[in-house]
Write a structure and sequence with these properties.
By secondary structure, the protein is of the alpha/beta class. The chain has helices at 29-43, 78-88, 100-104, 108-117, 162-169, 182-194, 220-230, 234-237, 242-245, 263-275, and strands spanning 50-54, 69-72, 93-99, 122-127, 130-131, 137-138, 173-178, 199-204, 231-233, 249-256. Strand 7 (173-178), helix 6 and strand 8 form a beta-alpha-beta unit. The longest helix is centred in the first third of the chain and has 15 residues, at 29-43.
Length: 276
């Protein structure tokens, strides 16, 4: 007998009056959105228990399309709003979505201190290597030698490794996926949401308009192929030499530490002591 498939009901999680979205045709952000909704559905979270914050940029438009508690904040400050919400109502599932520029440039200080404090919430970094919404300028993750509107002769700066930065700053769950690896992405988002502590998931996604065209990848298909070819599962990477890993990036779970002190929990313990 033919295998039957159950159609996923995205409509129950979307604010359809805000559609169509502003993302360019073929943008990977839509794939990340679908994976996020499927992960939340799998975990059976009530919509009123989920909060999504964002800053400014292509990725940061996501909260406007989803039917949860959402807030679209100022550039680079999404984590600060998220921290305030989590401190006030620790029971809420707080998720921040942010672009590579939003999270690691103007929001870089907030990123490292949220990780240092190990606050129990999730940050999803949509990494397309550029500021896609404002003209394709170079971001802190742009690969060395690649081109953007502000690096017309090629970037001469070493890029941030988002996952290594998160790990070094104190995040207790760190992973990376791509908009090509949609099935893996859904699983990693669910794992990030159930981790107690600060979880960081970097998603390599495609901006074929602002980045791809300047780097010989003019179509979404070419950029998706790039993600497939450059991704190396972390379990395989441990047996590869630095030369073999050159120009590639690790995917999957990068780092996990359990049973670490969590900032919000420690704060409420201290408040109880003060009351005595």
């Amino acid at each position: 007998m033919p295998k039957t498939t159950i159609k996923f009901d995205y409509d129950k999680y979307l604010r359809k009056n805000t559609l169509p979205h502003i993302w360019c045709p073929g943008c990977g952000d839509g794939i990340i959105l679908k994976s996020l909704l499927r992960a939340i559905d799998k975990l059976q979270y009530k919509k009123d228990d989920v909060v999504i914050t964002s800053g400014i940029g292509c990725a940061s438009r996501l909260p406007g399309y989803v039917d949860f508690n959402t807030i679209h904040t100022t550039h680079g400050r999404a984590l600060t709003f998220a921290i305030g919400i989590k401190m006030y109502k620790p029971r809420l599932k707080v998720i921040t979505v942010s672009g590579d520029g939003d999270a690691l440039a103007i929001g870089g200080n907030h990123f490292i201190h949220a990780a240092r404090r190990n606050i129990d919430m999730t940050l999803i970094v949509f990494n397309n290597y550029v500021y896609g919404m404002t003209g394709g300028q170079s971001s802190p993750t742009q690969p060395y030698g690649s081109y953007a509107t502000t690096t017309p002769y090629g970037s001469i700066e070493p890029p941030f490794d988002t996952c290594e930065l998160a790990k070094a700053a104190g995040a207790t769950w760190v992973a990376r996926s791509t908009s090509y690896h949609a099935v893996q992405l859904e699983k990693l988002i669910a794992d990030a949401l159930t981790h107690k502590g600060f979880s960081v998931l970097e998603v390599i996604t495609n901006c074929h308009i602002s980045y791809g065209r300047k780097n010989k990848m003019k179509s979404p298909i070419e950029m998706i192929k790039y993600q497939k070819e450059k991704a190396v599962p972390n379990r395989s990477a441990v047996n590869m030499t630095p030369e073999e890993l050159s120009g590639k990036f690790k995917t999957g779970l990068i780092y996990e530490k359990k049973d670490s002190l969590e900032f919000v929990e420690e704060t409420y313990k201290q408040l109880e002591l003060i009351k005595q």
